[in-house]
Amino acid sequence: MNKKGFLTLDDALKIQGPRSFMAMTKPVGSKCNLDCTYCYYLDKERFYGNNQETFPEEMLEKYIRDYIEANQVPEITFIWHGGEPLMAGIDYYKSVVKYQKKHNYLNKKVHNSIQTNGTLLNEEWCKFFKRNNFLVGVSVDGPKDIHDTYRKNKSGFSSFTRTMKGIELLKTYKVDFNTLTVVNNLSEGRGREIYIFLKSIGSHYMQFLPAVDYIEPADEKKRPIIVSPDLSKKATLAPWSVSAKGYGQFLIDIFNYWVRNDVGTYFVQLFDLTLGSWYGVNSTVCAYSQTCGDNVAVEHNGDVFSCDHFVYPEHLIGNIKSRPLKEIIGSDAQIQFGINKRNTLSGECLGCHYYFACGGECPKHRHLLTEGGERKFSLCEGIKMFYKHSEPYMKYMVDLLNQEKSPSYVIPWAATINY
Length: 419
Known about the structure:
Elements lengths: L8 H7 L6 E4 L19 H4 L8 H14 L4 E6 L9 H14 L5 E8 L6 H9 L2 E6 L4 H7 L9 H13 L4 E7 L7 H10 L4 E6 L3 E3 L8 E3 L8 E2 L6 H18 L5 E2 H11 L15 E4 L4 E3 L10 E4 L5 H5 L2 H12 L3 H4 L4 H4 L9 E2 L5 E2 L3 H23 L7 H5 L5
Parallel strand pairs: 1-2, 1-11, 2-3, 3-4, 4-5, 5-6, 6-10
Antiparallel strand pairs: 7-8, 7-9, 11-12, 12-13, 14-15
Helix pairs in contact: 3-4, 8-9, 9-15, 10-15
């Protein structure tokens, strides 16, 4: 670490343990049967066109072999993403399972997770996922009026009914699933309602992803282009973005219900991560870690980018057809990308009482500038609202853990606290 407190490349190389990483694998690129307004991945057609082919069979086998070998840990996870990854077809994933078994020479524990909008699910898919222990993430933004505003199909019609049908099939076939909910401007003031809705459809594991995007004018397809913070000088805040205070209150409203009713039964990713941070456990999610770089994106043609949120030409770090995945992941460029998460953060953030939990959030969301011209999380005010509000409850649950008791014992205590 240099005199200014920045992490250097040498620092990162010295503290590296066994290599462990994950990749958002895009077998069909940005192809999707929906046309979600806020989708940052549909923009990638600018780079690859709209005729993106599925991972060729030979490249798929090589990728799976390299992925298993490059992860130097006994348990690994393949994440299949998109676009809509089910558009690759079920035979593609049968090949995935076949090659995973073929090249798992060291008998590592191999997991598969797939993120889908749920509209293409049928009995065949569900039987396959159950038989092969896939974890299915379903994107659903809440009740129909919220979900359908930004998540329409290519013809501009509702996707809600088909998504709900897909979730019912997952439950019928007892497939493990969780939900990913984009928190946008329509979510504001409806946090508790959305949470209760997600419970009602059977979600026990929930992830809430804030939408705070900047856009450039629409291209010839009349679709605005979502840009990275580095390119946003002329961009404007997207109308679907959640406000900082709205995001903070959204989280607080859910937390107030959860901490009095559902601790230990329903799981909200941010709440679990926050408790872990108070307990002294390093975050397992890159957005809330001090550094990142262990979650790359692998495109349909083998291109590897530093991050799923930074699929831009300047963040292309290699291609699996011409370079081993292990070398790409361990490259100086990728390591530097990871430590820049901390090095480019404002001094204000580094000195914040809640930095240990927030980690500066994802660089994708650092559109705000301090008076000194340094970048900070656009929703900083909101996330601090949540951390401040939840702090006494988190400390109580830490005390329970230190007594080797379940955090769920916070429920009767929380019920006595006015909010």
